[in-house]
Amino acid sequence: MPAAPTTRARFAWTVTGSGHELEPALALAARLPDCDLFLSAAAEEVLPMYGHTLDELKKRFRIFRDKTASSVPVGTLYEEAYHTVIVAPATSNTVAKCAVGISDSLPTNMYAQAGKLGIPSIVFACDTEPVIVTRAPHDWVTLRPRRIEFENVERLRGFEHTEVVCNMAELEAALARRLQALELAWLGA
Question: How far is residue 56 from each of residues 12, 16, 82, 141, measured CA to CA in Å?
């Protein structure tokens, strides 16, 4: 029996509590056609620290917030609304939870359920290099991820329907491949 044509039409972009490369990540999300933002509670705390308000984001995106114990917005995946889930930027906490199957936030629930439904996911893991210089809300900081962060990234690479990327160039390339596979184009391209 042939597979039924998919009605999945949108990108689901989940935002965690990381400020690492947050600006360019949101800029990429804005270039995607039909892209919705799913915000963790931590993302809602961090976004204003980097100058983003919900009102401003609502001008470009449909916004889903982590305000329910059972992550009610995840149900949109069951309604076949999304063809791709993106977790970007992904904190080491989110990566660790995803790597061991914990889904207790909107981003981790979206990732877990996407995997169970066979929906491709792209995860931009923040802690992937021995030394990371990143912009904090008021200054630049140097971070040195621990061995456990690297182990969790590697564990996540082994998950079905998952592509892990380590920098903005890799994220943009992964999104370009996904757009091509879906016969879609960047907005403004």
Answer: 18, 18, 23, 27
Query: Is residue 102 packed enough to be buried (19+ CB in 10 Å), middle (13-18) or exposed (0-12)?
Result: middle
Residue whose C-alpha is closest to residue 126's, from 112, 144, 108, 106: 144
pTM over 0.90: yes
Could you tell me how many helices (H) and strands (E) the chain has, helices first? 8, 8
Under DSSP, is residue 87 helix (H, G, I), strand (E, B) or coil? Answer: strand
Alpha carbon 24 to chain centroid, angstroms: 13
71 phi/psi in degrees, rounded to 5: 50, 55
71, pLDDT greater than 90:
no
Query: What are the pLDDT digits (tens) for 33-46?
Result: 999 999 999 999 99
Task: Look at the block and give the residue holding tokens 């792209």.
Answer: 122
